[in-house]
DNA sequence: AAGTCTACCAACCGCCCTCAT
DNA sequence: AATGAGGGCGGTTGGTAGACT
């Protein structure tokens, strides 16, 4: 026995909304709020089902929706989060202020997915597609490049997950404090959610700082060992190919500190010092901060990633076998140790992303330890090679586009 | 100019989850 | 515990506009 339909379908209009219908819906909601969606159409004088009204409002009519072209930063965020969360569009949307899950989903399907595919990356797994039908040295080189990309992705994935856990750990303490604080002052209005989020006051922090910081660290700092890289474990790819993918448009981003200046590899400029975002930005929010804007609890702008991973490995040894989340917690501990404690002003990350991470999308935990040692073993020459390889891949991709186009 | 193809995206559909009863 | 309402979510469809032949 199936569910009864949400409304009588007979006589109800379907298809595109007219401006008059939009106006009716807006006027009603602005005056009375949506209340029960099922009851709304008749009250508002609309020949639509409640579900249709809800979709129209949440995906199109809400005043706090940002429309138009996605920025490079947004693209990067989508790809990163998709790699972590898969097709959990609502969770991804929660990290992109003023974008709806539907819009992100469409953008993924029509733009990003194709771009990934064109780059030889499986958009589902975020792994490089392996071509077993052909051989040759160029393919060997490509495999190595892909492996390097994977290793970078492992690092990023680990960082993202560790960050999320780190912030959550901090928030457990903060929520309690905040509740205590809130109970001592008048209640603020509940936040409106755009797919459960609201537009946020953008902090001045450069987006994706965490990832870029990690990149800069791995790039700029020679490491101690020359152990061979193990390339058989691929992981998810994040912003490094987001930049590659964006190459067919404009690599210059107002927020990116990374550039591909032709074929010349230039040192990356120093990143700004992370600034703390106040726990309560503005008055009425749930302290949700875009995923990519959660600052690392760094106390200065020195490069401490190597130290982090040293600490990580030490902690890992001490906690091995305790829990499936040991890797993450070890990383958290490493952060904690290297940073000299938590920054008390770290904002929380939205719960759905954290939940998604916890729900099993941290499936690469087992790679964390390996990726840590891998990253520690990447030497400067290999990093140079890595970036040159990316340039090569990007150029190759462009050439292919020209030929195919 | 007309027909066809392609990309885009708003909207729909059906399943799932939560909550109240 | 079972049931149903309400709403959220992700996959898919279909209309439309622009590009191409």
UniProtKB/TrEMBL annotation:
Entry GO terms, CC: nucleus
Transcription as UniProt keyword: yes
Under the heading PROSITE patterns, the entry gives: HTH_MYB, MYB_LIKE
Query: What is one Pfam family matched by this protein?
Result: Myb_DNA-binding
Keywords, A to Z, come to: DNA-binding, Nucleus, Repeat, Transcription, Transcription regulation
Q: Which domain of life is it from?
A: Eukaryota
UniProt-annotated location(s) = Nucleus
Renumbered to this chain, region (Disordered) spans 118-143
Q: Where is the composition biased (Polar residues)?
A: 134-143
Q: Which residues form the HTH myb-type domain?
A: 9-61, 62-116
Question: Where does the Myb-like domain lie?
Answer: 9-61, 62-112
Q: Which GO terms describe its molecular function?
A: transcription cis-regulatory region binding
| Primary localisation category | nucleus
Among its keywords, does the record have Signal?
no
Q: Name one GO biological process term.
A: regulation of primary metabolic process
| Oligomer and partners | Can form complexes with MYC2, MYC3 or MYC4.
PANTHER family xref list: MYB FAMILY TRANSCRIPTION FACTOR, MYB TRANSCRIPTION FACTOR MIXTA-LIKE PROTEIN
Protein name according to UniProt: Uncharacterized protein
Q: Which organism is it from?
A: Vicia faba (Broad bean)
């Amino acid at each position: 026995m199936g569910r009864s339909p949400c409304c009588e379908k007979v006589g109800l209009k379907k298809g595109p909304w007219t401006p008059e219908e939009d106006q009716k819906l807006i006027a009603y909601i602005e005056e009375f709020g949506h209340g029960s969606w099922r009851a709304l159409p008749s009250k508002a004088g609309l020949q639509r089902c409640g579900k249709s009204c809800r979709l129209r409002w949440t995906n199109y009519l809400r005043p706090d929706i940002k429309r138009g072209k996605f920025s490079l930063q947004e693209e990067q965020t989508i790809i990163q989060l998709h790699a972590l969360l898969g097709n959990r569009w609502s969770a991804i949307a929660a990290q992109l202020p003023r974008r709806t899950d539907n819009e992100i989903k469409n953008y993924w399907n029509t733009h990003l997915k194709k771009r990934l595919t064109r780059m030889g990356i499986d958009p589902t797994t975020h792994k490089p597609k392996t071509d077993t039908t052909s051989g040759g040295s160029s393919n060997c080189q490509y495999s190595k490049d892909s492996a390097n990309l994977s290793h970078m992705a492992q690092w990023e994935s680990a960082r993202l997950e560790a960050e999320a856990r780190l912030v959550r750990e901090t928030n457990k303490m903060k929520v309690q404090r905040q509740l205590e604080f809130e109970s001592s002052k008048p209640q603020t209005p509940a936040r409106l959610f755009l797919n459960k989020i609201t537009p946020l006051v953008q902090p001045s922090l450069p987006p994706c700082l965490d990832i870029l910081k990690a990149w800069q660290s791995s790039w700029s700092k020679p490491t101690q060992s020359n152990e061979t890289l193990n390339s058989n474990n691929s992981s998810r790819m994040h912003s490094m190919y987001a930049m590659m993918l964006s190459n067919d448009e404009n690599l210059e981003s107002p927020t990116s500190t990374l550039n591909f200046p032709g074929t010349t590899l230039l040192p990356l400029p120093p990143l700004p010092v992370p600034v703390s975002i106040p726990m309560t930005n503005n008055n009425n929010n749930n302290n949700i901060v875009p995923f990519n804007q959660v600052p690392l609890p760094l106390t200065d702008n020195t490069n401490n990633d190597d130290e982090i991973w040293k600490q990580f490995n030490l902690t890992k040894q001490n906690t091995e076998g305790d829990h499936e989340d040991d890797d993450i917690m070890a990383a958290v501990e490493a952060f904690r140790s290297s940073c000299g404690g938590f920054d008390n002003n770290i904002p929380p990350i939205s719960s759905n992303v954290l939940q998604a991470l916890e729900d099993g999308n941290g499936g690469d935990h087992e790679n964390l330890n390996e990726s840590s040692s891998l990253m520690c073993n990447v030497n400067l020459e290999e990093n140079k090679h890595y970036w040159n390889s990316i340039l090569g891949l990007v150029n190759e991709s462009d050439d292919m586009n020209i030929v195919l186009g």
